Amino acid sequence: MVLTRRALLQGAFATGVGLAVGGASFAYMTRRGALQLTRVTLPVRGLPAALRGFRIGLMTDIHRSQWVDVDDVQRAVTTLMGARPDLIALGGDYVTWADRHYIEPAAEALAPLTAPHGVFAVLGNHDDEREVPAALERRGITVLKDRRARVVIGSTPLDLLGVRFWTRRATEIAPLLKGAAATVVLLAHDPRRFREARALGIPLVLSGHTHGGQVVLPVVGAVAARRFPVVSGMATASDTSLFVSRGIGTVYLPVRINCPPEVAVLTLDVG
After folding, report:
1. Could you give the strand order of the β-sheet that contains 156-163, starting from the edge strand earlier in sequence?
2. Which one of 21, 47, 66, 198 is most buried, counting C-beta atoms within 10 A?
């Protein structure tokens, strides 16, 4: 039997639809059990010897909602706590579309997070500016909205600078660096702040926002996240390092394909 070009195209289309639907169903059903603990060593330019080996736990994009339930968040919290990081950073988007119904449950699920040098958070584009930070602060989590916090390891300071999602220009970030320690870690929900960090000489940026692409197709890759400097993982340029976490939750579609959720433990090393 000779197959026509039209028949071939129809068959390919049907196969693609079947794989997409089947893959989406599989991804949804296995999403909760697919959580990964990612361990990465990050090079940090000019890192003092006292900070070498310092470990930052990063959790981001929880998106607590009808699609991301308390078990998903608790599993991530338990996994991160089991890794015993020295400090924990939360990268924003604790709920979806600022849904007030989930703000307190999201914050309560994060309440068990503790670390020797504290738990710090920034806000994402899905978080409001009042209720979300208030809920987190009530659980002992320090929310950095365009401000710095200093931790001291031995006698060596490390500054965390957290910026709002809408703080985007280098001219807006530069004043926040006045009087900063020699080593600064920028917590920015959006990894596009990598550009401003490079311009300002900030050695390390930790971000989320991309969900790792959430749906990563063979060959094509993560179509929805191509506008970002890196979709997930590490990048280095101009003496600035960036790590982007795939995060915990989902948005728009309750699926992940070839892109499992993660929490990360990042070990600082001399760059």
Report:
1. 147-153, 156-163, 184-188, 204-207, 240-244, 233-237
2. 47
Q: How many separate domains does the chain show?
A: 1
Give 68-87 pLDDT, tens digit per residue. 999 999 999 999 999 999 99
Assess contact for 253 and 214: CB atoms under 8 A.
Answer: yes
Name the 3-class secondary structure at 55: strand
Lowest mean pLDDT among 14-23, 101-110, 257-266: 14-23
Residue 9 located in a structural domain: no
112 is a domain residue:
yes
The answer to whether position 218 is within a domain reads yes
Task: Indicate the burial class of 242 (C-beta count within 10 angstroms; 0-12, 13-18, 19 or more).
Answer: buried
For residue 1, being part of any structural domain is answered with no
Token pair recorded at residue 8 = 């071939």
Over residues 113-161, the pLDDT tens digits come to: 999 999 999 999 999 999 999 999 999 999 999 999 999 999 999 999 9
Q: Could you tell me the CATH number of the domain that includes residue 82?
A: 3.60.21.10
Q: Give the structural domain span for 248.
A: 31-270
Cβ neighbours of residue 211 under 8 Å, at least 6 residues apart?
A: 61, 225, 246, 247, 249, 250, 251, 256, 259
Q: What is the DSSP letter of 58?
A: E
- Does residue 25 have a pLDDT over 60? no
pLDDT number for residue 227: 84
